Amino acid sequence: MYGLSPAKSEVPNVRKKQTLLWTVSWSPNDKWIAVGGDDSLLKIYNGKSLQLVKTFPLKSMIRQVNWHPNKNIIAIATHNDSLSILNLDTRKMIRLRGVKYGARGIGWNFNGELLATADNEGLVKIWKANGKLLKTIKKGDDNSYFSLHWHPHQNTIVVSGDDIRLLDTTGRTLKIIKHRTDQTGVLAVRWHPSGNFFASADYGHDQIQSLLQFWKANGTLLKTMHGSKAEYRNIQWNKTGTLLATASDALRIWNNKGALVFTAQSEDLLWGVDWNSKSDRIVTTSINGKIKLWTAQGQFIKQATE
Fold it and tell me: pTM value?
C-alpha cells in the first residue's frame, strides 16, 4: 500500500539529532504520517505504530507537507526553490518551478485537481496537479505569506501573512482583513469543514498575547480566544468540524464555538498538528523533533522513536 514498507530508509544513516519539525500530515486512509522540518528529510511513519517507514532526502529545509485528498501524493513546501510534488507509488518527484525564495503555505483544493502555494515573495501561485503553473496572484507588497488553506467546497483560498486575504483562482482579492491593531503575523489559517467560517492563529510577540480567532466567510469576526503562552504555529480542524487542535506551548483542543475543552501539556513548543480521518487521534511535532500521538481528548498515547 502506497508503495511503502518498513524496509531500509532512502538514506543510509538517518540523522538522530534533535531537529525542528515544522509540519505533519496524515494520509487520507490513516495508514501513514508525513513529517518534515529543518533536517531537509521527508519522513513517512506508520500511522499506528509511529515506526519510521521511509525517508526521502530533499535539498532544502521543509516548511509544510500536505497529503493529496485521495491519492498517494504529497505536496512539499521548502525554505528555498525546491518546492515539489512527490508520488509515493512511483517515487516520481515533480519540481514546482518559479518559486524563487521558498514558501510556507501549500495545499490541495477539495478535489485534488489544483494545488496552491503561498510564498516568501508574497505571491500565491495556482498549479495543476501535474506541476503546471496556471496563475500567479500578486498583492501590493512582497511581504511573506505564512499559511494557506482552500475552501472545502469551492475554489477560494484564505491566505495569511501580516494580514488575512480571501482570494479566488481568477486572481481576485475578495477580502483583506486586518485581524488586530498590533503588528504581528498570522501563522495559520484553516477553513471549518462546513465552509461557513475559518479560524486564524497569530504569532503575538513580546508582551502581545497570541490570538486564536474565528471569522465568517465574508470576513466578519465571530470570536477571539486567548490562552496560549506562545505563538500558534499550526491549527487543524478534525474531519467532523467539532474540534480544533492548536499547536503552541501546549496541545489545546477547542470546540467549534471557541470554548477550550482539553489542554495537553508539552515539554517543548509544538509546531505541527493534524487529525486522522476518524477524528479520534492527533499527531504533533515539536521544536525539538518529538513526534507524538494523542487521543482526541489530549491524552498522550506514544512517541516516535528511531
Answer: 0.94
302 grid coordinates:
506514544
Reading the block at residue 289, the C-alpha cell is 523533533
**What are the pLDDT digits (tens) for 6-32?**
444 444 344 456 899 999 999 999 999
- 83 burial class (0-12, 13-18, 19+ CB within 10 angstroms)? buried
Cα–Cα–Cα angle for 189, 182, 261, rounded to 5 degrees: 45
Residues 6 or more apart in contact with residue 49 via CB below 8 angstroms: none
Give CA–CA dist 72/209, Å, rounded.
39
Quick one: which H or E segment has residue 103? strand 103-108
- H helices of the chain, in order, are none
Look at the block and give the residue holding cell 532512502.
10
How far is it, in rounded angstroms, from Cα 63 to Cα 161?
15
Domains of the chain: 21-305 (2.130.10.10)
Label the pairing between strands 164-168 and 250-255: unpaired
pLDDT digits (tens, 9 = 90+) for 113-162: 999 999 999 999 999 999 999 999 999 899 999 999 999 999 999 999 99
Task: Collapse the DSSP code of 282 into the 3-class scheme (helix H, G, I; strand E, B; otherwise coil) and give the result.
Answer: strand
Q: Which three cell numbers stand for residue 205?
A: 510577540
CA distance 5 to 32: 11
272, with CB counted inside 10 A (0-12, 13-18, 19+), is buried
Contact 203, 189 (CB under 8 A): no
Q: What is the DSSP string of 220-250?
A: -EEEEE---SS---EEEE-TTSSEEEEESSE
Q: Rounded distance, CA 215 to CA 210, Å?
A: 16
| Residue 217 backbone class (left: φ over 0; alpha: ψ -120 to 50; beta: rest) | alpha
Residue 82 φ/ψ, nearest 5 degrees: -95, 25
